[in-house]
Amino acid sequence: MSSNGQEERQKKSLSQGQLIWRRFKRHKLGMIGTVVVIILATISIGAPFFSPYDYTEPDFGQAYTPPQRVRIRDAEGNFTRPFVYGLTQEYDEVTWERVYVEDKDEKYPIRFFTRSWEYSVLGLFDTDLHFFGVDEGATIYLVGTDHIGRDLLSRIIYGSRVSLFIGGVGALFSATLGSFMGGVSGYFSGKVDMVVQRFVELLQLFPQLPLMMALSAAIPTTWPPLGVFIGVVFVLALVQWTWLAREVRGKVLSYREEDFVLATKTAGANDLYVIVFHIIPNCLSHIIVVLTLTIPNLILAESALSFLGLGIQPPMVSWGVLLSNATNLQTVGENPWIMLPGVFILVTILALNFMGDGLRDAADPYS
Amino acid sequence: MLSYLIRRILYAIPMLLLVSFFSFIVINLPPGDYLTTVQQQLQSQAGMSRDQAVAMAERMRARYGLDQPFVLQYANWIGGIVTRGDFGYSFQHNRPVSEVIWVRLGWTLLIAGLCHAVSVIIGVLIGIFSATHKYSIGDNIATVFAFLGLSIPNFFFALVLMYLLAFHAGVHVGGLFSPEYVLAPWGWDKFVDLLKHLWVPVVVVGLAGTAQNMRIMRGNLMDVLNRQYVETARAKGLSERKVIYKHAVRNAIQPVIMYMGMALPFLIQGEIIASIILNLPTTGPSFYYALVNQDMYLAGSFLMMIAVVLVAGNLLADFALAWLDPRVRYD
């Protein structure tokens, strides 16, 4: 009995964070999603290290190379370390299309931590160390190349930088705007609430994508790619914040009458202080959940916009930009691997949705 | 009930005005207008001098009222819509906007409506199955399917489906009709051909909605099945079928209906992007090209009409809910 009671007391003494973490660990899909997200984030941060090729460097002789197969059994059927065969180009005698044939005599083992093209790390020093590659004379295009022979994998890896960054920063931006507006609206109620809520309703009356399309069409085409990039983040955040504002407002309305708010006010705090330092921290777990679920929405929206040519502009790459090369059905039919960036979008969004789902279940550990 | 209806409708009117004003602002945001493009064309293709081209563009601006101040332009536009059903002039198509948008909006509504019906019916049915067969193989498959459906980008799904159909199943995809039927008069064969093309966008657009409805229905029904009145219904000896369909489902379906109004924007935006890829004669491609070419009255009218459809959809969802749940009416 007594040991049981002690255990009970120890359980109670766990902090809110520990409780949330314990609950989150039990959500298997959520954990898997988180691991995938961490892997993707790592790869995108270390993009040059993980890219076997320079993503901007065209190689016209290697246009539309299909994905190369990594083999672990050689021609005699013995297991060896992973290798790829060298490729030779031939022409199809009927259609005169270029075809790539594996040359079974040339074996190139995949080498890890090899040296190839140079890049600089944070502008501090230059290095040419890469995660994997093959010896000179062979190629390793794990997911093929695009129409001017750029390695698609390297482009996808670099594209993940833009796609994930837009999702993350856009979500953070819309969360800040949304929780502030929602906080103000719920806290003051009355006329302020009325105005903010009508404005939110107005924005929500428009389906998001057409509105985003119209707004990003307003970004001048003369802007440099970086300017367009910032513009797109703004557009996404401006359209998205309303959903969070709604959620936060609801929470704030319920906290407004609580004793701790009254206590803070009695102690002489002004309204802004109460909102920013007392009410929003209380909604924080909720905000984080909505934030996590906003990121996939923004990644989807960005890829759709860029796919249509209204978002990120080349030479900057995002997954949507890469997919915009796959609009011609004939090209896709001959080179289906150019659709692969879509698989990365799908996996990322799936992982983020799982993670958000797990967080949502865990955010309220007392339920 | 009647006063509730009237209140809701009256409330929608200022909303519509705001929507039209907001659409007009958004469409006017890009620097320059269609005539800037025309002016460039006149210079580069028709060989006019810069002054001539500018003068010509100015004359055209005056003719279409584009030289007036912003608020006046808006007043003209909205006045034309309300009094004459005149949505302005589409420079790109060279005819009034109203001639362009109605047919396209019709197709959009047809496709979105079909998707809506399909996603509600199938979603609710799978949801009921999942909730009553909790953690069975079927439920797990349905859950995975729902997550996939919610995560796959619409346009990517359309692309993959098109690729598979065209290159692995050998079916004609894209558009609403096979080439030989496009100009043919309406008949049974043409109708069948239409159905053969129509299911692709319906599947593409409806997938996410089906998944969403299924998730909502499953969650709610699972909650409701734990309630005491369900226990009571079982205890008094009702058949399981009756317990589920008469007692539990009826209470669990409300959020799905409430969600119906919210689902419409997703359907329409899904329809827009899927249509651009599948090359359907709906609002999607036309809206897109109007934006790209700064055909402002056309783009603005589309943006506004989409929002108007949503206002109407929300109204309908409210009415459906009020009809289903008497508590809502006396709010």
Question: What order do the helices and strands come in, and which of them pair?
Answer:
The complex is a heterodimer of chains A (367) and B (331).
Chain A: H1 2-12, H2 16-26, H3 28-45, H4 47-50, E1 71-73, E2 79-91, E3 98-109, E4 111-121, E5 125-133, H5 152-188, H6 190-205, H7 208-217, H8 225-256, H9 259-266, H10 271-307, H11 319-323, H12 329-334, H13 340-363
Helix pairs in contact in A: 2-13, 3-5, 3-13, 5-6, 5-8, 5-10, 6-8, 7-8, 8-10, 9-10, 10-13
Chain B: H1 2-28, H2 34-44, H3 50-63, H4 70-84, E1 89-90, E2 95-96, H5 97-132, H6 137-151, H7 154-167, H8 188-225, H9 228-235, H10 240-252, H11 254-278, H12 283-292, H13 296-324, H14 326-329
Helix pairs in contact in B: 1-13, 2-3, 5-6, 5-8, 5-11, 5-13, 6-8, 7-8, 7-11, 8-10, 8-11, 9-10, 11-12, 11-13, 12-13
Description:
The complex is a heterodimer of chains A (367) and B (331). In chain A, the strands form two sheets. Chain A has a three-stranded antiparallel beta sheet, with no helix packed on it. A two-stranded antiparallel ribbon of chain A has the order 4-5. Chain A has helices at residues 2-12, 16-26, 28-45, 47-50, 152-188, 190-205, 208-217, 225-256, 259-266, 271-307, 319-323, 329-334, 340-363, and strands spanning 71-73, 79-91, 98-109, 111-121, 125-133. Chain A has 367 residues and is α+β, with helices and mostly antiparallel strands. Chain A is built from 13 helices and five strands. In chain A, helix 3 packs across helix 13 and helix 5 (152-188) runs antiparallel to helix 10. The model of chain A has no long low-confidence stretch (mean pLDDT 81). Chain A is elongated. In chain A, a hairpin with a 5-residue loop joins strand 1 (71-73) and strand 2 (79-91). Chain A folds into two domains: 59-150, no CATH class; 154-362, MetI-like fold (Orthogonal Bundle). Helices cover 60% and strands 13% of the residues of chain A. Chain B has 331 residues and is mainly α. Chain B has a domain at 98-324: MetI-like fold, CATH 1.10.3720.10. Chain B is built from 14 helices and two strands, in the order ααααββαααααααααα. A two-stranded antiparallel sheet of chain B has the order 1-2. In chain B, a hairpin with a 4-residue loop joins strand 1 and strand 2 (95-96). In chain B, helix 5 (97-132) runs parallel beside helix 13 (296-324). Chain B is globular. The interface between A and B is large, with 39 and 48 residues.
